[in-house]
UniProtKB/TrEMBL annotation:
It comes from freshwater metagenome. Residues 50-73 are annotated as: Disordered. Residues 50-62 have a biased composition (Basic and acidic residues). This is Unannotated protein. InterPro entries: GH, Glyco_hydro_b. PANTHER family: GLYCOGEN DEBRANCHING ENZYME.
C-alpha cells in the first residue's frame, strides 16, 4: 500500500491492462455508481439510511467507504459543510484528470443527494429524481465541474491513448510522468510504497505524446497536480529543471470558484490547503 496504489489509478492502471496489450481507455474510472451513495452523500453519511425503501434499513450495502466529515446528514455547521464541498471537488478533480475513461453519475456534478439512501432502485420520488433547481453552492459546484470537463477536453495530456513509460520525453528533458515529493524531487522506491505519506505531486508532460493520423507530433501543455490528503496544510517546493521553470495555478479545490489564481517559479514554496487538490500549468 501507499501512494503507488493511487498513482496506478491516476495514470490509467497500466498494472492491470498493459500486459494484455490494452490501452488506457480500458480503464473506466469512477467514484460512485448508480448503486450506493451519491458523491454528495459519500461525504454526508457514515451509514446508509434506506428506511424509505420499506425494508427496515436491511437492504443496501453496509460497505460504503464514506465519511460524513463530522456530522451525520444535513447540518448547518459551516466547518463541516465547507469540508464536504471541498472533498466533493477533490473527487471530481481526480476523476476528470485521471488517465482513462471517466464515469460520472448524473447529478454528482452539482451535488445531488438521496438523503443517505444507497439503494434507491425502488424510489420514484425526489430521492431518485434529478432536480435542476440548484442552490448557490450547487451552481458553484456545477461551474467547477464544467471547468474540469473543459480542462480535460481541451488537453490531450489528460486523455492519453498510450500508457506512460516513466522515461524522459527527450534527452535531458522531463519524464512523461513523474511523481514529485514535497521537496520538489521525485519519490524514491521506499516513499512510493509508504502508507503514511499524504501529499503527492503528479507531473504530466504534454510533449509530443500523441500524433495526428498522418503522423505529425502533437504538443500539449504540461501540468503538475498536487494532492494533499492531510488534515493539515502542507508546504511543497515547486520542482526545478527539467520539470519546469514556472507554474501557474489553473484550478484549486480549496476554493469554491472554478478558477484559481497564483503562480510561482521553480524552487518557490507553495502551501496546499488541507484536503485539497491544486492543478498547475507548467512553463519553461
Amino acid at each position: 500500500m501507499g501512494i503507488s496504489d493511487l498513482g496506478w489509478r491516476l495514470s490509467g492502471s497500466a498494472d492491470l491492462y498493459s500486459s494484455e496489450g490494452r490501452r488506457p481507455y480500458a480503464s473506466i474510472n469512477f467514484v460512485t455508481a448508480h448503486d450506493g451513495f451519491t458523491l454528495r452523500d459519500l461525504y454526508s453519511y457514515n451509514g446508509k439510511h434506506n428506511e424509505a425503501n420499506g425494508e427496515d434499513n436491511r437492504d443496501g450495502t453496509d460497505n460504503n467507504r464514506s465519511w460524513n466529515c463530522g456530522a451525520e446528514g444535513d447540518t448547518d455547521d459551516p466547518a463541516v459543510t465547507t469540508l464536504r464541498h471541498r472533498m466533493i471537488r477533490n473527487q471530481l478533480t481526480t476523476l476528470m484528470l485521471s488517465t482513462g475513461v471517466p464515469m460520472l453519475v448524473a447529478g454528482d456534478e452539482f451535488g445531488r443527494t438521496q438523503e443517505g439512501n444507497n439503494n434507491a432502485y425502488c424510489q420514484d420520488s425526489p430521492l431518485s429524481w434529478v432536480d435542476w433547481d440548484l442552490s448557490e453552492w450547487q451552481q458553484s459546484l456545477l461551474d467547477f465541474s464544467r471547468r474540469l470537463v473543459n480542462l480535460r477536453r481541451g488537453h490531450r495530456v489528460f486523455r492519453q491513448r498510450h500508457f506512460f513509460r516513466g522515461k524522459p520525453v527527450f534527452e535531458g528533458g522531463p519524464k512523461d510522468l513523474g511523481w514529485i515529493d514535497a521537496t520538489g524531487d521525485e519519490y524514491n522506491e521506499r516513499e512510493w510504497h509508504d502508507p503514511n505519506l499524504r501529499t503527492v505531486g503528479m507531473y504530466l508532460s504534454g510533449y509530443r505524446r500523441e500524433r495526428t493520423p498522418d503522423g505529425h507530433p502533437i504538443d500539449d501543455e504540461s501540468y503538475l497536480i498536487y494532492l494533499n490528503a492531510s488534515f493539515e496544510p502542507a508546504d511543497v517546493v515547486l520542482p526545478a529543471a527539467p520539470w519546469g521553470g514556472s507554474y501557474e495555478a489553473v484550478l484549486d479545490s480549496a476554493e469554491g470558484t472554478p478558477d484559481a489564481a497564483g503562480q510561482g517559479a521553480a524552487g518557490d514554496t507553495l502551501t496546499l490547503a488541507a484536503h485539497s487538490a491544486l492543478v498547475l500549468r507548467v512553463s519553461g
